[in-house]
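Hi support team,

I submitted a single chain yesterday and got back a structure, but I'm not sure I'm reading the token output correctly. Could someone confirm the output below corresponds to the sequence I sent? I've pasted both exactly as they appear in my results page.

Thanks,
R.
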Amino acid sequence: MGTFRDSCASVWSYRKVYTLMLVLYNQSEDEPVPRLKHEADAHLNGGEYCALTTSHSWLLLGLKQRGFGRGRWNGFGGKVQSDDKSPKHAALRELQEESGLDVLIDDVDEVGRLWFTFTGKEEIIG
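Hi R., thanks for writing in. Yes, this is the structure output for that exact sequence:
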């Protein structure tokens, strides 16, 4: 079976595909507050993390350390690489690299796609 990139060969010469994953955790009323491994791991993989909460839902964000959006809170993601089976696989790989979280592919839903188009020769996402 080929990769996602193989199936979209004509598109790859014109644009790069990036992923963005938002980690949303819905907590039942009897569960304790979710934590990132433990308090000492607030700087997992060299990053800083926060969780926004409303009632029993949590959204995990990371502080962007470099490139486009540096210094801003964001979801996790990055470029789809040639050996990624799909954008969903790429998103899970990026999430693990950036946060240390391992999530099963069956626990992930694709809820939308964003397309970014850049003009000129300089790539501003890095």
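A quick pointer for reading it: The CA atoms of residues 37 and 101 lie 9 Å apart. Let us know if anything else looks off.

Best,
Support desk
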